[in-house]
Amino acid sequence: MAHDPPNNPPISGPPQCARCPLPSLAVLRLHPLCPTHITQYIHTKTIKRLETFRTRYSSPNDPPRRLLLALSFGVSSTSLLQILDLHLAGQRERVGRAGVEVRVLWVRGFNEGEEGKEEGEGQGEGRMQRLRERHPAHEFATLELASVLNLVPGLATSLLPNPDLDASTPTSHRLDALLTSLPSASSRADLKRTLLHRLLLHHASSTHCSALLYGSTTTLLAERTLAEVASGKGFALPQLITDTPATTSEGGVQILHPLRDVLRKEIQIYASLVSPTLTSFLIPEQPVGAKAVVNSRDATIEGLMRGYFEGVEEGFPAVVSNVVRTVGKLQVQPKLEREEKVADCEVCGLDFVQEGEVERSRVCGGCVRMLGHAS
Amino acid sequence: MAPRECEICQNNRAQILRPKNHARICAPCFTALFEQEVAETIESSNLFQPGERVAIGASGGKDSTVLASVLKTLNERQKWGLDLVLLSIDEGITGYRDHSLEAVKRNAADLDLPLKIVSYQELYGWSMDQVVAQIGKKGNCTYCGVFRRQALDRGAAMLGVGHVVTGHNADDVAETVLMNLLRGDLPRLSRATSIVTSTPSAAKAKSADGKVTMTNVKRSKPMIYAYEKEIVMYAHHKKLDYFSTECIYSPEAFRGSARTLIKNLERIRPESILDVVKSGMDMARLVPQEQGAVPEEVEMTGRCGDAKESGGEMAAMERKLQQDEVAATNGIGVEIQLPRSSKNDRELGSAHAHSRETVALKAANDHPDGQNHDRDQLAPVTLPTRTKMKQKPAGRGAEKRTLPPKQKLGQCEKCGYLSSQAVCKACMLLEGLNKARPHTGIEVG
Ligand SMILES: [Zn+2]
Ligand SMILES: [Zn+2]
Ligand SMILES: [Zn+2]
Ligand SMILES: [Zn+2]
């Protein structure tokens, strides 16, 4: 290193970092950056989204506020944990205390089982154990996705009552039966995500967490925006995509996406720089190409959008951000006409406008379609 | 697969699988149902007044051909008493319209409806062929698009007709919803999902006795819930005569991209098309007031070209967004922007981009550390110079959507067409064209 003076860079080598004389590793938003400054850039972008939880807004006598981090063992949520961990450690060093306390929740039965390949029980537990050792400052918990059927009131009754499966049937069997009854792979993926969200929110609120943190990147949020639109849930985009403002969630749980200003490829670069490496914790991702095959029976809208935005992110990253920013301009709720009122859907829990005398009007239009009961 | 009987009449053999609900039905039941559904859209949104004079925008393509046939049938069956007329625009593109206009003429004869053909030449003094001869193939799509958006309204005004119906189908609308999400254009997204376009387009017309009158032209889309596939099936089973080709001029990248997505969505889950339309209508209700109005007829009517993934438009947008991002990262970006005067507004294309480039260069050494920027607080990225109109949001519940009673919109001082600027886009483009070839302005009527 010492004999490689930075002011004399090799002609064909990478351009110099925009912040320091070191050679850059990658170009982020037009700026070539070195590893240190990539890391700093990602940290700043992420922590900035958590402004309301800064220590300066809390008094040292308040108990630290709790944040529930939804961990999927994907690159994004695992990196988010890493970022928060470093940030809080730094805070403790500087201020002597951390303003928040992070709880990590992994839900079993959500991202396994795709393509029929169930990740071995032990493997998930093993990851969890190793991650706990890596981040001893935080509490870790595991829940079963199926448990949501018993935990969230109303779900069991609105989701399909198969007379053969009463409350004595194990929830995992009930969930399997429910998933099998759905009309398409897209519906199954939608229902699982819906149930996951409800379980996470339920857990956040019952463990007195102020916020639920997702690892969703800009790219994922853009994909979800278009996927939700294609599933008839355009009415709920602000609830699904936009961060909950602190003021409207008094007593409730704020839903935040701290990586919302970070592209997927940026968090991947970040993750590759983390040391010791994150690789052993991550559930390997399926190649997008396989997901994007449109004609297969297993094709999902989610997979289609994933493939689509992979291309857009590559060539037009600002267009990806713009989709998410555009959703941010929508109001949460429409002005209501006389005979309309807002209710929360028994299945997804989202606010929707009840339009007159629809059968099953306790369930929003998007969920009705997902469940395949549309006539 | 074993032959099944029609789910509706339980008699004929099912020939058709409906994409939107998987129903297997026979051809006669299908055509009856198709007509009935268009009738429901029309009646539930009170689209027509009894005895109203309605122009059907007829291109000779499948959508408008089916629309004309269905409206003719329904008008008689439902006793709406409408005075229907076919209105065709001749862009003056050799080899493109000739055949489709023949199809329109045959339709007019078959349906026994009056036909009025209005040419760009009559409306603007320029045919598209002449425009291309003048400016070349590059960029002529702008002209075609701007001229076309106004042509139906101007043509209708010439005929003294206050209502134009167009053949937009569910696929078109779904495509426009996704396209405008990608472009970040909420006003256009709202507008695309309105069955009745909430902003009436005014056009100045000279009647036979030489009197100039303003006509408010209302636009509507009776087939907004009809699948393109079903329109093709309807045309097939009714043996309708249509011409299939699309404009030979440049594609729009965002639309092409959105169209591919819609086609893929349809393959994965056919119901998605209607779900996108429904989502778009619901989102229109969430568009804040100041974002909700589109002052000009800027909705994409008709499409220009079977878009290939040229990416040019997306690349341009990407550059602009990145520059905005850089400008926003630096407080200075805001100050460096050109002062806003109507003169500059008119040249926003070049001047604006130029100022942004300057900013980008200056900012190149700045670190994107997110310290002092909050892009979300800044002005919307689309057409920053467009005047925001204070009015009701374009998007209300679609079924209940009717025209707001009064609206104060600016009018083009040259032609009287609704415009947010002193001079409308068509007149601006014409000004440029006419500079090179001395010519009069728009001579309507
Ligand atoms: Zn550096
Ligand atoms: Zn729902
Ligand atoms: Zn039948
Ligand atoms: Zn004008």
Automatic annotation (TrEMBL), chain A:
Give the main localization category.
cytoplasm
UniProt GO MF annotations: nucleotidyltransferase activity; sulfurtransferase activity; tRNA binding
Q: Which GO terms describe its cellular component?
A: cytosol
Q: In which pathway is this protein known to take part? A: tRNA modification; 5-methoxycarbonylmethyl-2-thiouridine-tRNA biosynthesis
Coiled-coil blocks = none
Q: Keywords of this protein's UniProt record, alphabetized?
A: Cytoplasm, tRNA processing
Q: Name one Pfam family in it.
A: CTU2
Q: Which GO terms describe its biological process?
A: protein urmylation; tRNA wobble position uridine thiolation
Q: Does the keyword Cell inner membrane apply?
A: no
Under Gene3D superfamilies, the record lists: HUPs
**Subcellular location(s) per record:** Cytoplasm
Do you know which PANTHER family this protein is assigned to?
CYTOPLASMIC TRNA 2-THIOLATION PROTEIN 2 (PTHR20882)
Function description: Plays a central role in 2-thiolation of mcm(5)S(2)U at tRNA wobble positions of tRNA(Lys), tRNA(Glu) and tRNA(Gln). May act by forming a heterodimer with NCS6 that ligates sulfur from thiocarboxylated URM1 onto the uridine of tRNAs at wobble position. Prior mcm(5) tRNA modification by the elongator complex is required for 2-thiolation. May also be involved in protein urmylation.
- Family per similarity comment: Belongs to the CTU2/NCS2 family.
- This one is known as Cytoplasmic tRNA 2-thiolation protein 2
This protein's species is Cryoendolithus antarcticus
Instruction: Name the gene.
Output: NCS2
Automatic annotation (TrEMBL), chain B:
Q: Which residues form the tRNA(Ile)-lysidine/2-thiocytidine synthase N-terminal domain?
A: 54-246
Which pathway does this polypeptide act in?
tRNA modification; 5-methoxycarbonylmethyl-2-thiouridine-tRNA biosynthesis
Asked if Iron-sulfur is a keyword of the record, the answer is no
* One Pfam family hit: ATP_bind_3
Annotated GO MF terms: nucleotidyltransferase activity; tRNA binding
Task: Tell me which UniProt keywords the record has, alphabetically.
Answer: Cytoplasm, RNA-binding, Transferase, tRNA processing, tRNA-binding
Region listing for Disordered, in residue ranges: 365-404
Q: Name one GO biological process term.
A: tRNA wobble position uridine thiolation
What enzyme class is recorded for this protein? Answer: transferase
Q: What is its EC number?
A: 2.7.7.-
An example of a Gene Ontology cellular component annotation for this protein is: cytosolic tRNA wobble base thiouridylase complex
> Where is composition skewed (Basic and acidic residues) in this entry?
365-377
Enumerate the spans annotated as Cytoplasmic tRNA 2-thiolation protein 1 C-terminal domain: 410-440
Compartment list: Cytoplasm
Q: Does the keyword tRNA-binding apply?
A: yes
Family the UniProt entry places it in: Belongs to the TtcA family. CTU1/NCS6/ATPBD3 subfamily.
Its job: Plays a central role in 2-thiolation of mcm(5)S(2)U at tRNA wobble positions of tRNA(Lys), tRNA(Glu) and tRNA(Gln). Directly binds tRNAs and probably acts by catalyzing adenylation of tRNAs, an intermediate required for 2-thiolation. It is unclear whether it acts as a sulfurtransferase that transfers sulfur from thiocarboxylated URM1 onto the uridine of tRNAs at wobble position. Prior mcm(5) tRNA modification by the elongator complex is required for 2-thiolation. May also be involved in protein urmylation.
This chain belongs to the protein called: Cytoplasmic tRNA 2-thiolation protein 1
Source species, please? Cryoendolithus antarcticus
Upper lineage is: Eukaryota, Fungi, Dikarya, Ascomycota, Pezizomycotina
- As recorded in Swiss-Prot or TrEMBL, the protein's gene is named NCS6
